[in-house]
Automatic annotation (TrEMBL):
Domain MULE transposase: 27-122
Pfam family, one: MULE
Organism: Elysia marginata
Name of protein: MULE transposase domain-containing protein
InterPro entries: MULE_transposase_dom
């Protein structure tokens, strides 16, 4: 367990989990506000991959969702790995769609490929369609509805498969 000084951040894990996460080429990170202790704002989890399964390895209790908090938590995680002689250099980091976490990942892991979760991307697009007045059209069975819904599959395509 590591507790941040000025920011009230608490990371919990085991040596085995740090080793597993460090050896994973693909890390999934996700936060929840629903299941967390009373005095923390968010529980953020970091998962490693094994046989196409995500294994939770590190649990971070965070006081807010500011970029400085995410950056500090990621730095603490790297520090914990270094203390055990593990190198946390993932090729791909997949996380929920949040600008603050995106900036923090780019800062702490500049060489990693960073992707947003398709579920969260779709959720954001759906909210935007509602904001700009396309909610009724999206729900209908029209040609426009089919066209709008096709956008949700774009993140799954390779770049060369998408047409102009």
């Amino acid at each position: 367990m590591e507790i941040g000084e000025s920011l009230q951040i608490c990371l919990t894990t085991t040596v085995e989990n740090l080793n597993f996460l460090s050896s994973s080429t693909y890390i999934l990170a996700d936060g929840t506000f629903q299941f967390r202790p009373r005095y923390f704002y968010q529980l953020y989890t970091f998962h490693g991959t094994w046989n196409e399964h995500f294994i939770p390895c590190v649990f971070a209790l965070l006081p807010n969702k500011k970029e400085t908090t995410y950056t500090r938590a990621l730095q603490m995680l790297r520090h914990m790995c270094r203390e055990k002689n593990f190198s946390l250099h993932s090729e791909l980091i997949h996380f929920d769609l949040e600008d603050a976490m995106l900036s923090s990942c780019r800062h702490v892991f500049p060489d990693a490929k960073i992707k947003a979760c398709n579920f969260h991307v779709g959720q954001t697009w759906h909210k935007k369609l509602q904001q700009i007045g396309f909610a009724a059209e999206f729900q209908s069975n029209s040609e426009t509805s089919t066209w709008l819904k096709s956008f949700f599959g774009l993140p799954a395509l390779d770049l060369h498969e998408a047409e102009d």
